[in-house]
Amino acid sequence: MAEIHPTALVDPRAELASGVSVGAYAVIGPHVRIGGGTSIGAHCVVEGHTTLGRDNRIFQFASIGAAPQDKKYAGEPTRLEIGDGNTIREFVTINTGTVQDAGVTRLGDDNWIMAYVHIAHDCQLGSHIILANAVQLAGHVHLGDWVFLGGLTGVHQFGRVGAHAMTAFQTRLAQDVPPFVTAGGNPAEAQSINAEGLRRRGFSAERITLIKQMYRLLYRKGLTLDAARQQIDALRGELAEADADIQLMQDFLATATRGVVR
Description:
The chain is an alpha/beta fold. It has helices at about 195-200, 205-220, 225-235, 245-255; strands at about 5, 10, 15, 20, 25-30, 30-35, 40, 45, 50, 55-60, 65, 80, 85-90, 95, 105, 110-115, 120, 125, 130, 135, 140-145, 150, 155, 160, 165, 170-175, 180-185, 190-195.
């Protein structure tokens, strides 16, 4: 059975799996579902049509599943879906989606969300992401797997950050950051590839070298974006294990709508 502190307010219609713990003065709304092993800290509010998977840890004072900060929102039953094994620290705010988008805000698995982060309506986050303190995501932002955003990074609405990309402290993102790229500054500029992150994830030296080639074509050869994409495509077959990395980059660049950080 769930372990619920006597001062917590849990709506009887909420669905709490075995092994859930709810701390003092927490509030759980009627449309909330929480998977086994998840802990909800003291003074947290979990509301809206929110689903939490297994083994998440929500620290005190977080606000999960509140209505979107969008003046067009008219009370529709939009959703928030959070996967398994996420850590969500103090004063984090995560809002549900809007009907103007997919109607759902999503977080994958094994994400590390530090204090004071805001994840706005309709954001789509992958897995293994780290958001350092006070990162601010506007509505409709998409983050790929293994993204790391440095403290106080701000991402413009509809912005995208590709898998394995990274930002420095206090970065302002008004354009998309391609996969594997490290960006920093206000406004953001590309600085390098996230080589250390790739090494930690088991990328071979040869694979990292090919990713560096893609980076040079994008940022160091003075090519237009279309010309860089053509030359990146020509790298296929040089290293079989890197063909998926080339495809990831090409798919991202082909769908950039806000422009790419250059």
